[in-house]
Write a structure and sequence with these properties.
The structure is a single chain. The protein is an alpha/beta fold. It has one domain: HUPs (Rossmann fold, 3-Layer(aba) Sandwich). The chain contains six helices and five strands, in the order βαβαβαβαβαα. Strands 3-2-1-4-5 form a five-stranded parallel beta sheet, with helices on both faces. The longest helix has 17 residues. The protein starts with a strand and ends with a helix.
Length: 160
């Protein structure tokens, strides 16, 4: 069984993230979606809320396992016996950052964990969580960027 880790803040999870998860499910036996807590950022959703949303989205997909963590991504990959870390790339600047991170993670894991970069479908590659939050704050339609479950949760959260 080949497991991979897909880490991110997922605040919120977008159709771009979901496309990467679907691609990973087609390639691997299990995709561990790791909601990573970043103490430097204040998010729209708590870590627990993000985990619940993603679990709800993938409740019928036995290949997706959702966890949360505050530690190092590489430690989580090793804990779950993942062979690779999945990273979604959108821009050239993403690539430059990700190549450095992949080399460090490979060293830290003593060559046990690789990084695999996937690209979202071209109609989704421009979507970012921060952009979706900005669009919502301008009272514009976000239905093309997030699942209806996420859209409802965002609108409910934004009202409060």
């Amino acid at each position: 069984m080949i497991k991979v880790l897909y880490p991110g803040s997922f605040d919120p999870i977008t159709y771009g993230h979901m496309n990467i998860i679907e691609q990973a499910c087609n390639l691997f036996d299990e995709v561990v979606v790791a909601v990573m807590h970043n103490s430097m950022k204040t998010g729209m959703f708590s870590t627990e809320e993000k985990v619940k949303l993603i679990e709800q989205l993938y409740k019928d997909n036995p290949k997706v396992h959702v966890v949360s963590s505050t530690g190092a991504t590489i430690d989580l990959a090793l804990k779950f016996n993942c062979k690779a870390i999945i990273r979604g790339l959108r821009t050239l600047s993403d690539f430059e950052y990700e190549i450095q991170l992949s080399q460090i993670n490979k060293q830290l894991s003593q060559n046990r964990v690789n990084t695999i970069s996937l690209f979202a479908e071209s109609n989704l590659e421009h979507i970012s969580s921060s952009m979706v939050k900005e669009i919502l704050s301008l009272d514009k339609d976000i239905s093309g960027y997030v699942d209806p479950i996420v859209e409802k949760a965002m609108k409910d959260k934004f009202k409060n």
